[in-house]
Amino acid sequence: MSLLTLLILAFTLFAASRAVLRWRDKELALSGMLFWLVIWTVVFVVALFPSTSSQLATLTGVGRGVDVAFFGAIVLLFYLIFRLYIKLDHVDRDVTELVIKLAQEKAVKQPPS
Amino acid sequence: MLVYILIPAFNEESHLGAVIDGLRAAGWQRLLVVNDGSRDQTSAVARARGAETLDLLINRGQGAALRAGMAYLKQQYDPDIIVTFDADGQHDPADIANLVAPIQLGRAEITLGSRFLSKRSDIPWPRYALLKLGVFFTMIASDIYLTDTHNGLRALSRTAYQRIVLTQRGMEHASELIDEIKRRRLRVVEIPTTVYYSQYARDKGQPSSGFARLALKYLLGKLAR
What we know:
By secondary structure, chain A is mostly helical. Chain A contains 4 helices and no strands.
């Protein structure tokens, strides 16, 4: 087993433990924790058994195992960016609602002279 | 009929005074200036001229300012008509009477100003081309044909301002408003209005390059809803 493989395995265990700790501290929902555990488990398995990526490549018709890993990572990243965009948009809307409500309350409390 | 003029304003201390004076001279006394998080004396200028003000703590965009103003007016005064009017001196107060008339006569629920129906607007050609592109975009995206899709001068009846729901806070609210007109099946009439293109208004207004970003924000906003 190479040093790189050991580092990847160590990192995935660390990342998975962070997800569990965040869930335990109620900073991450159960669904979120399970999502990340699945991701890191896949990375762990592929790092430990590199031939699985080749088998996946054959299954999906993609050239090489590393290509499957890259395509999978890109798709996942796009999905996460989309989710982040939606969340950011919701936060932006909430800030606007708050600003409007504050303005209205201040105006009502201080009617025009 | 109770008509309120709603003026969203961001950093307009230099022009707002003249705008308010022009509106009063034209006979419009009920004015609400929504100060959209200005960093200058916009609010003070409005109050000094006897206009009501609604102050947003931080800048949220014209869409948010209009939404705040409409909600406030609905709660406080329940006006028959709300007229939206720009604070940078681009609009002519003399056009307001023509805008409210169809609503007063029951012929429309919302009237939109159109600089293309008026021969008095001297539209710079790059802006002309982009606005025409906006008309085409609206025709495709909202399935409604209007001659001017981004004119801030408009009049809304009580039915219109109570039923329209605006969620987009920036300039893309103008496209969303058109969507709402279609969705709520509001009777809309376009009225010839004049838009004055001073150097100040050109410098302050939406840059030509911003229209593509505006269209993208409108589409992304629809996706996120």
